[in-house]
Every structure is written in C-alpha cells, then in structure tokens.
Specification:
Elements (H helix, E strand, L loop, with lengths): L1 H4 L9 E4 L5 H11 L6 E4 L4 H10 L3 E3 L11 H9 L3 E3 L6 H9 L2 E3 L3 H18 L8 H6 L2 H24 L1
Parallel strand pairs: 1-2, 3-4, 4-5
C-alpha cells in the first residue's frame, strides 16, 4: 500500500485505521510506516458501531489483512465491510475462510504481495478518477446471508431446535 501511496503519481488518498489507535502494538507499527505520509494517514481509536458505519459510508475501498498463521477466523471487520457494500481488498490472503467469503460474495479483490496491491490500487484509483467510483459486482443475496439480522435469525432457529428437542426428551 505504501508503494502505491508513494508512487510516482502521488495519488490523493487517505488511509484511515479505525480502531487501531486503541492497540499499542498496531499504533507503533502504523507510526513506523506513516512517518513519510502523516498527512494522509489517520489513526482512530475504537468507536461505536454506528460511527464505524458512517466512516465506511464515506470510503471508496476497504482494506483488510489476515491474522497471520490463523485459519478459520473471520474478523468482525470483514462483516462490517460486507455490510458497507464497498469493495474489499484482502492483502495478504488467509487462503481460508476470509478469501472464500470474499469470493462467494464477489465483494472485492485478493492480493498477496505489495507489488500486487500497488498494481491493483493504481488500477482502482484510475477507475475512481475517471468514473468517480470503483465498479464491482457484488453478490448482494450472498452478502445479505451474512448480515447481522440473518445471522441472528439462524441463531434463533438453532435455539428453537434445541428447545424443541429438550421438550421431546421430557415427554419420553
């Protein structure tokens, strides 16, 4: 991402790290890389979900990283990004559940190296400059399946099933 920001065209971009200001380790990592682009990097503390959604509504692109070495872990941020219906860039891929979900929902792009990320960001930035937006074709039905409302409904169904099974065993 820094390769893109510091590239020859100096794109008019801003990186916002929402919630990273509350984590000392992340904050130090971001400070180390942002020394040359302080004016274009904002680090925000943890915030209420509604504020996160307002921030995402202003975004043109959402960037997501994996949990190095961890498999089978979805991040809450992934689901927030899906709900925003903004393109997601996963870099690097987890080669697991996050990649699968982004592919299933057609919610964005998966890159694995800084060179791939810089090339993709350059392409998407040019598209945004020419059209005023980044075009992509998400699978809205698949995204809705992962909404909080849909997931809560599935959880309620499971509880109903467990309750019904307990009632049946009591009758026997």
């Amino acid at each position: 991402f820094l390769d893109f920001i510091h590239g020859p065209n100096k794109p008019k971009t801003r990186l916002v790290f929402a919630g990273a200001g509350s984590d000392p380790k992340r904050l130090e990592r971001i400070k180390a890389i942002s020394l040359t682009s302080v004016e274009r990097i904002n680090v925000l503390p943890k915030m209420e979900q509604e504020k996160v959604f307002k921030l995402l509504a202003k975004a043109h692109l959402c960037v997501l990283t994996n949990y190095d070495g961890e498999k089978g872990r979805h991040t809450a941020k992934l689901f927030d990004y899906l709900a925003s219906q903004k393109p997601i860039v996963l870099c690097p891929s987890d080669q697991d559940v996050m990649e699968d979900l982004i592919q299933e929902t057609r919610a964005g792009y998966i890159v694995n190296t800084s060179e791939e990320a810089a090339a993709l960001l350059k392409e998407l930035y040019a598209q945004w400059e020419n059209q005023g937006f980044i075009s992509f074709d998400p699978n809205i039905a698949a995204i809705r399946k992962y909404s909080r409302k849909s997931q809560a409904g599935l959880l309620c169904e499971k509880f109903d099933q467990i309750f019904a099974e307990k009632q049946e065993t009591k009758k026997v």
